Write a sequence for this structure.
């Protein structure tokens, strides 16, 4: 891959996803921390971008979306997770920001689990 300075593409971040959730796309929630010392500046835009992960639960009518904002900016950026009823035009039910990948993973897994268990009591 000519555009990448990495020896190979980083692996995708493992996630525990309960039954009923459908990955719309995993366009780069990688198992790599947003450390400017580890990621060459030329690679930051494709590793840390706005469209990273989208997961939908049709029966529960929920959409979870994750991205990095501002795209490619490791010094000032953060992960942003949003949960909507229906889609992006629906009610925003939950918003979460962090620059820590493992805190993000814990929040994704918590939300997916909570919605499966308690659809009436949303995040």
């Amino acid at each position: 891959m000519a555009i990448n300075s990495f020896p190979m593409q980083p692996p995708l971040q493992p996630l525990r996803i309960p039954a009923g959730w459908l990955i719309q796309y995993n366009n780069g929630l990688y198992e790599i921390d947003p450390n400017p010392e580890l990621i060459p500046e030329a690679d930051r835009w494709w590793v840390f971008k706005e469209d990273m992960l989208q997961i939908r639960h049709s029966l529960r009518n929920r959409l979870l979306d994750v991205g990095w904002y501002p795209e490619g900016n490791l010094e000032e950026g953060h992960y942003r997770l949003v949960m909507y009823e229906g889609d992006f035009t629906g009610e925003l039910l939950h918003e979460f920001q962090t620059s820590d990948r493992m805190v993000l993973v814990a929040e994704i897994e918590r939300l997916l689990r909570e919605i499966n268990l308690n659809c009436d009591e949303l995040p």
Q: What stands out?
A: The mean pLDDT is 91. Residues 22-117 form one domain.
